[in-house]
């Protein structure tokens, strides 16, 4: 052991995550992996061809730090077309290395040490890590259960605001629950942010994956919200290209400028050929996404029915890649133990929702199953779960 060295406080406890552990368990046991949200589905062929062509044509050097103008224009057009929100591609849109870098850069740009960031619990694990890197702290606001869905607990949200609160992190559609925040909920959140002068960072990487004819609504479109909101999205989930890491953030110029100041010293710029191809693809996203949604919705229905047959009570996923299930009928109360034993018991891998929990007193009996897989994988997992029940 080298005693001259120890990890800095900001990375302590961020070691091997349960995602790594479960992915390794799936590899070792050959179990069907419904753990990590890695799509088994194909990307649009025209997009793949376009990237190859861009590489061969020499698009292999640093793009501009803010991203290629063509992609920034395509993102601005997308926000205008879908949400009626106008952003200047010149200084109100910034291309990032995935939504992950946008999130980290936004938290670094907005938070000083000691600040508090509100996030709904459970939440995507990059939020508490990003806040910590900025010296800030995420405060978990529990989502309440209502039948088979999760809902905003407005009283809990109000109670969580302190004089140190600077940012509210929103994620809709939500990972890990598959919840879509309703118009009423967004209005309540927006009112609170206006009242307390909070900046909103909204993570909308599943914006195209709302099922059952539902439609994504963005908080930036509400009265008085554009000026205080950074909206983040990414190509990964929309086009089944999670390995490309092309994301973007839209917001008022001064906020985007601050994010860009942090971002330039994280990666500066990345993904030149991907950016070029995505700039051309984004205009056609609606047609592509309609097809992807119908595939994913079918998978969701198969998985949801299968979990119910296996006695693992599923919650309704209105969007995204994931379903929550309550494991107590199998005699477990601890999702971590359940997930460690599931590969040998049933030949399936899932992720304990505890990996997304901010509060130590969050219910431990939820497990997340992903359905962004080939239909055969979902069918096979369901058979195995039913047999093991
Ligand atoms: C997958 C995911 C991300 C990461 O997006 P990248 O573009 O791959 O960095 C961010 N937020 C949520 C909620 C996600 O599920």
TrEMBL record:
CDD domains: AAT_like (cd00609). GO terms for molecular function: kynurenine-oxoglutarate transaminase activity; pyridoxal phosphate binding. Gene3D superfamilies: Aspartate Aminotransferase, domain 1, Type I PLP-dependent aspartate aminotransferase-like (Major domain). GO terms for cellular component: cytoplasm. Keywords: Aminotransferase, Pyridoxal phosphate, Transferase. It comes from the Bacteria. Coiled coil: none annotated. Its cofactor is pyridoxal 5'-phosphate. Residues 32-381 form the Aminotransferase class I/classII large domain. InterPro entries: Aminotransferase_I/II_large, Kynurenine-oxoglutarate_AT, PyrdxlP-dep_Trfase, PyrdxlP-dep_Trfase_major, PyrdxlP-dep_Trfase_small. PANTHER family: FI04487P. Belongs to the class-I pyridoxal-phosphate-dependent aminotransferase family. This is Aminotransferase class I/II-fold pyridoxal phosphate-dependent enzyme.
């Amino acid at each position: 052991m080298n005693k001259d060295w120890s990890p800095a406080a900001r990375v302590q406890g961020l070691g091997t995550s349960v995602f790594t552990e479960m992915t390794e368990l799936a590899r070792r046991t050959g179990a069907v992996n419904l753990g990590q949200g890695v799509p088994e589905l194909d990307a649009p062929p025209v997009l793949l061809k376009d990237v190859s062509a861009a590489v061969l044509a020499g698009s292999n050097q640093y793009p501009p730090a803010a991203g290629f103008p063509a992609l920034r224009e395509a993102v601005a057009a997308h926000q205008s077309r879908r949400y009626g929100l106008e952003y200047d591609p010149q200084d109100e849109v910034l291309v990032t290395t995935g939504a992950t870098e946008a999130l980290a850069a936004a938290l670094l740009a907005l938070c000083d040490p000691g600040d508090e960031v509100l996030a709904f619990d459970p939440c995507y694990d990059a939020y508490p890590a990003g806040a910590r890197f900025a010296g800030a702290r995420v405060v978990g606001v529990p989502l309440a259960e209502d039948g088979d869905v999760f809902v905003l607990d407005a009283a809990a949200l109000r109670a969580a605001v302190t004089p140190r609160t600077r940012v509210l992190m929103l994620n809709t559609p939500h990972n890990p629950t598959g919840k879509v925040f309703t118009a009423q909920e967004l209005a309540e959140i927006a009112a609170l942010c206006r009242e307390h002068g909070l900046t909103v960072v909204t993570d909308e990487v599943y914006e195209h994956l709302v099922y059952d004819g539902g439609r994504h609504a963005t908080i930036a479109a509400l009265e008085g919200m554009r000026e205080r909101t950074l909206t983040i999205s990414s190509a990964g989930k929309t086009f089944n290209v999670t390995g490309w890491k092309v994301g973007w953030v839209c917001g008022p110029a001064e906020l985007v400028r601050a994010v860009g100041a942090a971002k330039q010293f994280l990666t500066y710029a990345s993904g030149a050929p991907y950016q070029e191809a995505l700039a051309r693809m984004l205009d056609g996203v609606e047609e592509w996404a309609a097809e992807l949604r119908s595939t994913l919705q079918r998978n969701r229905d198969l998985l949801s029915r299968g979990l119910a047959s296996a006695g693992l009570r599923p919650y309704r996923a209105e969007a995204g890649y994931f379903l929550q299930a309550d494991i107590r009928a199998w005699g477990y109360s601890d999702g971590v133990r359940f997930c460690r034993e599931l590969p040998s018991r049933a030949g399936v891998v899932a992720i304990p929702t505890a990996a997304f929990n901010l509060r130590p007193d969050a219910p431990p009996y939820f497990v997340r199953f992903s359905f962004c897989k080939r239909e055969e994988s979902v069918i096979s997992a369901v058979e195995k779960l039913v047999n093991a029940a």
